[in-house]
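User: Working on a comparison across species. This one is RNA-binding protein KhpB from Limosilactobacillus vaginalis. Can you predict its structure so I can line it up against the others?
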Amino acid sequence: MGRYTGETVEEAVASASKKLGVAVDQLEVKTIQQPRHGFLGIGRREAIIEVSIKKAQKKDKNKGNHGHHKANQQTKVQQQPKTRHKSTPDREVDPAEMKRRHEQNVKRVEKVSQELADYLKNVFANLGIEVKPVVSDVRSHEVKIDLQSEQSGRIIGHHGRRINAMEQLSNAFMNYHGAEKTMVILDTANYRQRREESLHQLAERSVMEVVSTGQAVFLDPMPARERKQLHQELQENDHVKTYSHGRDPYRSVVIAPKN
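Assistant: Here's the predicted structure for RNA-binding protein KhpB from Limosilactobacillus vaginalis:
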C-alpha cells in the first residue's frame, strides 16, 4: 500500500498504475484528499490517494508457472459479471427534499454574493472608482450584480475588458467560497443589454464583409456568453459559418464563408 498525488484523482491513479506496473482496474483506490484549484493560486492543493493491489492480482504476480491453471481459474471466477441492483423508486429523491436542497443552494449563493459585493466594492475603491454593488436575481447557479456608479465608463473599460475581467474574478470568488459553478453577471448602466444590441449589429456587418470579400473575419476576444450569442445568431445563416479561436481569456469568434 502506498500514497500517490496528482493535480486530479485520475492523474494520481494513472501515476500509481504506471509505477506499480498494474492496470488501473486491478487497483484498490482510496481518496485521502480531494484536489482544489484555490482562488488566484491561494489554497491550492493536490489530490492524494492511497493505493493497494487487489488480492487476486497479488497472488497472480507471486505465482510461477506451477499452479498457473489454478490462477487462471481464480481469474475467471473474478471476471464473472456482478449483479447490479437497479435503482428503485424508493431510492429516488423525494420532491420535498429536492425543494429543500434547491432553497439551500439559493441561500448559499445569496450569502456568498453579498460577500462578493463587499469584495468588489473594495477592489473598485482601490482603483479610485466609487461603486455600490446591488445583488439581484439570485438563483441556485446564477446571480446578477448591478454596479451602480457615476463612473460606469471606467467600470466597463475599453471594449468591456475591465467589467469582463471583474466578472471572471467574481466567478472564481464564488467557486472558492463554496458556491461552486455559479455564473456571475456583472452589469452597470444597462451595459449588457446595450452590448447585446451592439453584437447583433456587429454580426450583420461581419456577414456583409465576409460575403463581399470572400475572406474570414476575426473578431476581438470576448467572454463565452457573447461568443454564444454570435454563434446562435448566425447558425442558420446560409452564407457564413462561425467557430471560436484561441484560448480564454483571448478566445474570439471567427466568421468565415460557408463554402
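For your comparison, note: Helices lie at 9-20, 55-62, 68-78, 95-126, 152-156, 161-176, 191-213, 224-234.

User: Helpful, thanks.
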